[in-house]
């Protein structure tokens, strides 16, 4: 058969999968014996492509599955015969349109067993600090009276989700394809690789996120809807008020953001009640305020660097002008009162 038009008809039948064994043999013999331009049947190939469905599944999962098929089949890109070069050109359409999509359809209909990944959880005591290294080499410094929950390992290409209640400073290992996400109540903090501090105690009205290096995206989850609040850069801090769901963004010295990890405790415009709550977490103590009026009577600005709790209380007494008195008992109970009340 030497009529070129008949050969074209055979090639079209081959692309459509309608050629019988004898017709295939004739076509292959022609391709082996005749000097052909690899592109002489390109119009037929384009026509076959044009008849494919316009809607395709182009997700990364299809790409991954197709790569696995190609790897398992050990398909060679270099062919010695001209026949294989031409048929490989034509078969590329069949592979992409039918094999990959067919495999994805098959996989999509299978019930894949769920991969079980062990979850870890750690809760610290009052006055306790803990350093935790996650499977991706991310370092977490967990503050007192805090709980961290995380998976034993992270899956490449998926979000690295963990949960925090309390305070933690994070030094996240960068992974562009696997964002690191911290869930704290209704606040979600997402990064690729950076260092930042989160204070999110369930008993507190204010949750805060402060960035030391890199960029951090802070979002709010409300009734299943995720809404970005702000994109923070170094030296920025977001305070989220749980009760009325509002937030403010301010600036902070980057060196102060994780100061608590080195026993340097900083208070800025905090009242006595707020200070007592934080000191209970930093030190293993309890407070008994016998003069309720002192709780919000004034605000304090102070830095306690490597100080014992007794030194801290003495400095608070002096800052109050001698109006605040305290007593520390052996069971770490600190009683506080004002003038005229004991």
From TrEMBL:
Keyword Phosphoprotein: no
A Pfam family it matches: FecR
Positions of transmembrane segments: 86-106
Domain spans labelled FecR protein: 124-216
UniProt keywords, alphabetically: Membrane, Transmembrane, Transmembrane helix
Keyword Protein biosynthesis: no
GO molecular function, one term: sigma factor antagonist activity
Domain Protein FecR C-terminal: 264-334
InterPro entries xref list: FecR, FecR_C, Ferrdict_sens_TM
Protein name, entry field: DUF4974 domain-containing protein
The species this protein was found in: Pedobacter kyonggii
